[in-house]
Amino acid sequence: MPRASRRVAVTAAAVAAAMTSPLVATTAQAKQPASPQHVVNTYFADWDIYGRGYLVKDIPADELNHITYAFAAPDKDGLCAAADPWADYQKVFDATQTVDGVADTWTQPLAGNFNQILQLKKAHPGLRVNLALGGWTLSTYFSDVAKKDSSRKAFVQSCLDRFIRGDLPGLPAGAAKGVFDGIDLDWEYPGVDPGNGNHFTAEDKHNATQLLREFRKELDAQGAADAKHYELTAALPATAKASQYYELQKVARELDYVDLMTYDFHGPYEPATSFNSPFTTDPTDPNPGVDATWSTSATVDYYLSQGVPAEKLVVGTAFYGKQYIRVGSANGGVYQPFDDTGLSGAVTGVSGSTTPTYRDLVQAGILSPAGAVVGEGWVRGWNAATGEPYLWNPSASHTLSDGSTVSVPTFISYDDPQSLQERVDLVQAKGLRGVMAWEVSQDTDDATLLGTYAPLLH
C-alpha cells in the first residue's frame, strides 16, 4: 500500500484521553489508565507536509488531546528508525510554516516536524504525542525483532534512545527529548503476510506480547527517571480476526489503551460495493467473510468478550471513504457489482481515487463542510442496517489513471458528522476510553469531523 494511504488496501480478513494523568512509574500501575478521562486521538503522518501541504501548525489541537505521529519502524538491522528523517527532524520551515511564526535556521539543534511538535505542545499544555511504529508498509521486520529476548531488548532500547531520550542520528544528544510521550505499536499483522511483505513465524502472536512487555518495562523505567508516565498503546485489528494475530487480554494488560482499527472492513478487492466502516453489522452484506463481528460496535463487543476492559478501548474512525465506479444501479448502488478499473489510491482528489477523503468530497463541491449534498447529480443515502451514509450518482465524471475520462454510476461509502456521532454515543454508553481518527489532514480546514468529538473533551 502507498504510505500516503496506509489503511486503504487492507483486506477485511487482515484487518480484522483526555490525557492520562501522570502515574507513579511502576508496571502494576501502568497497566491501568490513571483516570476514566476520554482520549480524543488523531494520527498525523510525516508525508502530510508533502501531499496536501498540511503542517503541524494546521493541527486543530483544541479539538483533541492526543496525536499519534506516523511512522518509525524496525529496520533490517533490528533497530528503530525514522521513516522520513528529512520530514521528521531535518526540514527547515519558514516563518509562515511554523507554529510560533518564527523561521527555523540551519544551525538549530532540532528542526522538521519534531521541532514543530515541541512548539505545538508548548502552545497546548497537556497535549500528548505518541510515536507509531510500523503501519501497513513498515511492518516487515517486526517478526525478526520480536523473535527472541536479545533482539527485543535491542530494538526497544533503540526506540527509547532515539525517540524518548531524543538521541537522533546526527543531532546533539537529547535534541529530540520531549517530543514524544509514548510509543504506539502498529504491527500489521503478527503471524501472517497479509499482502504487505511481512516476515512472519508461527510464534509471532506470543512474541508480540513479549515485545509489548519489554516496551512497558523500559518505558516505566524511563518514566521513573523522568518523573512522568510514558504511554504504551497499540493499533489492533477489527473483528474476531484480531484473536488470530494478538493475545488480546494479555496485550491489553500492558497497554494504556487500544486503538481499534474499525475501518477498511470492505474495499475494491471484493465483488460488491459496501461500507468502509459499518457501525453495525448487516447480515445481508453479500461480500465473502462477513460475520457477526463485522462492524465497529460488534468489534467493541468482541474485545469486551475477550476480557479487554472498556476503559482501554478507543474506537477508530476513518476520515476517508471508498469509491466504486461502473456500479450496478439497483438499491442506490448498495451491495452492487462494480468495476474500479482506472481508479487509484494514489490519485489526489475524488475523481480518480479509490479512497477520497472527507476534505476531498468538500473540495470537489459534492458536500458542504457540514455534510449536506451540494453537488449536482449526487444523492446522499443512509443505510439503516449499517448506520452509515453513502453517496450515489448515476453518472459521475472521473479522470482515470491513464488520463481518459468516463461518466459512470458511482457509489461512495464514507463517514460524516451523523455517523461519527454514533461513535461518540457508543463511547459514552459503554464507558469506552475514547475515539481515534486516521488521519487529521483528511478533515476539512475547519475540522468538521474532529469537532464531532467535542463532547468527549469535557
At CATH level 2, the architecture of the largest domain is Alpha-Beta Barrel
Annotation, overall tally of beta strands: 13
Radius of gyration (Å): 21 Å
The stretches of 5 or more residues where confidence is low (pLDDT under 50) are 1-36
Strand content: 15-25%
Mean pLDDT across all amino acids: 93
According to CATH, what is the topology of the largest domain?
TIM Barrel
Measure the end-to-end span.
37 Å
Put simply, the count of helices is 12
CATH class group of the largest domain: Alpha Beta
Q: Give the CA-based shape.
A: globular
Q: Find the structural class using helix and strand composition.
A: alpha/beta
What is the count of distinct domains? Answer: 2
Please describe what this structure looks like.
It catalyses: Random endo-hydrolysis of N-acetyl-beta-D-glucosaminide (1->4)-beta-linkages in chitin and chitodextrins. The chain is an alpha/beta fold. The chain has two domains: 3-318 and 416-457, TIM Barrel, CATH 3.20.20; 324-413, no CATH class. The protein has twelve helices and 13 strands. It has an eight-stranded parallel β-barrel with strand order 1-2-4-5-6-7-8-13, surrounded by four helices. A four-stranded antiparallel beta sheet has the order 9-12-11-10, with no helix packed on it. α6 (149-164) packs across α7 (204-226). The two termini are 37 Å apart. Mean pLDDT is 93; it is low at 1-36.
